[in-house]
Design a protein that fits this description.
7-stranded mixed beta sheet, 4 helices, two-stranded antiparallel sheet, globular, 9 strands
Length: 170
């Protein structure tokens, strides 16, 4: 995926766009009224692929890739690297952009009752290190391509299936 930081023909310092932690009341309003950009990633560790069980809405209790909201003023690559490190304690390399999808859920993590609507940048990368999940994820599931095709694929959310099909085609 290409990213551009140009205004009036000159490059800009994108770090000036960073806002840090948004006050929860403001974020709740934005979440309830806007679609937002997320990035999700299929991490390959050796010959296996990683999904985790989400322990928070949306998609609570579902096997899902690592990822989440794209950080403002941070490149997508740096943002997803930071997210994977925080969520699973591993580093990633060799990122491949897979495409874009959209997910919409009736549930939301902020209790505003308006659901969750995200546009998702999908990635594949090599993972390095031992998986140590944060408090929002559990049950790391590592599986081979064969296990995905023969047993796991039929039980997964359609978004996750699309991502894995794209990743395994690489």
């Amino acid at each position: 995926m290409n990213e551009y930081s140009i205004e009036d023909g000159a490059s800009i310092d994108v770090s000036a766009l960073q806002v840090g932690q948004v006050p929860i009341d403001e974020y709740r309003i934005a979440h309830a009224t806007m679609s937002y950009v997320c990035h999700d990633i299929i991490v390959q560790i050796n010959d296996q692929y990683l999904l985790v069980e989400r322990d928070a809405v949306p998609a609570k209790g579902i096997l899902w890739p690592l990822g989440g909201r794209l950080l403002r003023g941070v490149t997508a690559e740096d943002s997803i690297k930071d997210r994977v490190l925080k969520e699973a304690g591993i580093t990633i390399s060799d990122l491949t952009f897979l495409g874009v999808a959209r997910t919409m859920f009736a549930t939301d993590p902020l209790g505003h009752g308006k659901g969750t609507d995200t546009v998702n940048l999908m990635y594949l990368a090599e993972g390095h290190g031992d998986v140590q999940l944060d408090q929002l994820h559990k049950t790391p599931t590592l599986f081979t391509k064969e296990e995905y095709v023969t047993t796991l694929r039929a039980s997964l959310h359609p978004y996750v299936v699309e991502m894995l099909d794209l990743a395994l085609a690489q």
